[in-house]
UniProtKB/TrEMBL annotation:
Identification of the protein by name: Phosphoglycerate mutase
Active site: H9, E82
Record-listed substrate binding positions: R8, H9, G10, E11, T12, N13, W14, N15, R58
GO molecular function, one term: phosphatase activity
Signal peptide per UniProt: none
Superkingdom as given in the UniProt entry: Bacteria
Entry-linked Pfam families: His_Phos_1
């Protein structure tokens, strides 16, 4: 059985400021760095063989801190980056809500309806996440893999695997900073989400998406 561990990055300065990050760069706060170190401690007994990390600075920092004491080869990948938020990136959410209330509401409450010029849709990032997930499974021989990415990237992938419609993407559990979600892939190809944002997951097994 293969285990795929999905990890969100630690808290960033833009998380704290409530600023839209998307694919722009932000850095871990002191709290975020501590979260990454604690994640590494929690995963000490997890026999990781391969680590795939979004090329964003906040995810690279998280992986470097969490796995600093382990002899692991880390592969960085642009396709593991967060949803591209176009003209919103770098703006405070309070200002976005004031300027574009309809799209702001769609983003947080009806993601399947979100459509902003210059930005990815939730369907597009979900397809990007699925394609990269499948590629990692097909290209790596490792049985224990960590993927360090972003909240929406991970949530959209888990929605596809549950399966859950994108309209319910923001339903609990919340994808907190340095959350850990795990997918078990059985020899017959079936996949089961066994942990979702650090909580045991008990839904029915879903068919393989490969």
């Amino acid at each position: 059985m293969r285990l795929i561990h999905l990890i969100r990055h630690g808290e960033t300065n833009w998380n704290r400021e409530r600023r839209a990050q998307g694919q722009q760069e932000s850095i871990l706060t002191d709290t975020g760095r501590q979260q990454a170190l604690q994640l590494g401690q929690r995963m000490t007994d997890t026999p990781l063989e391969a680590v795939f990390v979004s090329s964003s600075q906040r995810t690279r920092q998280t992986a470097e801190l969490a796995f600093a004491d382990r002899n692991l080869e880390i592969e960085h990948c642009d396709l593991l980056r967060e949803i591209h938020m176009g003209p919103w990136e770098g703006q405070l959410y309070v200002d976005i809500q004031s300027a574009e209330p309809e799209q702001f509401h769609a983003f947080w409450h009806a993601p399947e309806k979100f459509s902003l010029a210059g930005a990815e849709t939730f369907e597009q990032i979900q397809q990007r996440a699925l394609q990269r997930f499948r590629h990692i499974l097909e290209s790596s021989a490792a049985d224990n893999i960590a993927i360090v990415s972003h909240g929406i990237w991970i949530k959209s992938l888990l929605c596809a695997l549950e399966p859950r419609p994108l309209s319910k993407l923001w339903e609990p559990p919340a994808m907190h900073n340095c959350s850990l979600s795990t997918i078990a892939i059985h020899p017959d190809g079936n996949q089961r989400i066994v942990m979702y944002s650090d909580k045991p997951y008990s839904s029915e097994q879903v068919e393989s998406t490969q």
